[in-house]
Amino acid sequence: MSGASAQLIGILQDVLSGIQTPVPLHEPYFNGNEWAYVKECIDTRWVSSVGSYVDLFEEKLAEHCGVKHAVVTVNGTQALYVACLLAGVEPDDEVLMPSLTFIATANAVSYCGAAPHFVEADEATLGIDIPKLDVYLTSITERRDDGLYNTNTGNRIAAIIPVHVFGHMCDMDALTALADKYYLPIIEDAAEALGSTYKNRPAGSFGQCGALSFNGNKIVTTGGGGAIVTNDAELAKRAKHITTTAKQPHKWAFIHDEIGFNFRMPNINAALGCAQLEQLDGFVKAKRDLAARYKKAFAGSDFEFFIEPEHVHSNYWLNLIKLGDSADRDAMLDALHGAGYLCRPVWQSMHTLPMYKDCPRMDLSVTEDLEQRIINIPSSVTLGL
Ligand SMILES: *Cc1c(COP(=O)(O)O)cnc(C)c1O
């Protein structure tokens, strides 16, 4: 084992002393009303696609995200997809997004028949490098009557999707200014950032729509699930309609007025979500406490522990370190797994995947560098309690 691996394992052993190995990267934590609410669904037989927990979860989510409306869905990927449709993304359009993201962001755009257009990451936020993107857009776009066009491909650029990577938010003032300058609607991929704020404003509240995820590994889980959050009443109404088979309300008739989706979140999942959401503030506090311990332990080491960007109060969903330039990432991950710490690398960047390798993109050298150097370290809520 290399000296660097031994040092890293030593730091994790120190911070996580007393925790039994193997230590997963992130596991859910159920310590509130989960059992009571789920049991109530079963006892009352309201387990499926309608029920009071769906309405309650939507109401509470909107509150937490500082928006007027939330529409829950079967998962975060479909929430993003519907948000893209609502933003008017059409076949052959391009949508700006970082290459440093989870596959769902790119797939959601593809489902619309559009292409992801990959943009560079910023070392300090892990989100979009906004000044570089501004220079790039100035050089490759032109404004026409019906929108912004990529002069290289001839296609319309329909929207921008900032991603709050590992819960750390982008510089939303700069991003909003850039989106305004180019007349682009913002769809926030806030799947990892529930509970994070930028200048005291919650993740998900900046875009035309935001998308959340409640997959089992997220800070709040419903087993599987997602949500679209927005301040726009019309968009919320439309999101609800097309995610629930486009059925018109009626006592007994089946009247569907367009081709809708069945993207509903079942009541039993929403019940779990309501119980989890009641604990969100405590979860964020536990995660921030764990991050503070990591920060101290990594000070003066060969590893850079990633700290929340300026103006951001992060949920620290997944903690991460950056390895030095010469580090052998995969050998280090092997050693970590051997020692019982189930760490993971950051995602393979989107523009290197076979189905996305020919998509339009700007220079992505920072993304490619970060991809080799980021390792996520254990981050479950329980570790911070
Ligand atoms: C989890 C996640 C999603 C949505 O994932 P689902 O598993 O479909 O709920 C989207 N974007 C990012 C960045 C994510 O981490």
Name its key features.
385 residues, alpha+beta, 4-stranded mixed sheet, 15% strand, globular, binds pyridoxal-5'-phosphate
Mean pLDDT: 97
Largest sheet: 5 strands, mixed
* Tally of separate helices: 12
Low-pLDDT stretches are none
Strand content: 15-25%
Terminus-to-terminus distance: 32 Å
What is the strand arrangement across the widest sheet? 3-2-6-5-4
State the secondary-structure class: alpha+beta
**How much helix, percentage-wise, in residues?**
25-40%
Shape: globular
How many E strands? 16
What order do the helices and strands follow? HHHEHEHEHEEEHEEEEEHHHEEEHEHE
| Rg, Cα atoms, Å | 21 Å
Bound ions, cofactors and other small molecules, one mention each: pyridoxal-5'-phosphate
Give a written overview of the molecule.
The chain has helices at residues 3-15, 34-44, 52-65, 76-86, 103-111, 130-140, 172-181, 233-243, 267-277, 280-298, 329-338, 365-373; strands at residues 69-73, 94-98, 115-119, 141-144, 147-150, 156-160, 187-189, 197-198, 201-202, 209-213, 226-230, 304-305, 312-313, 319-322, 344-345, 374-377. The mean pLDDT is 97. The protein has a 5-stranded mixed beta sheet with strand order 3-2-6-5-4. The protein has 12 helices and 16 strands. The protein starts with a helix and ends in an 8-residue tail after the last strand. Helix 1 (3-15) crosses helix 10 (280-298), helix 1 crosses helix 11 (329-338) and helix 2 (34-44) packs antiparallel against helix 9. It is of the alpha+beta class and 385 residues long. The structure holds pyridoxal-5'-phosphate. Residues 75-77, 80, 101-102, 104-105, 163, 189, 191-192, 213, 215, 226 line the site of pyridoxal-5'-phosphate.
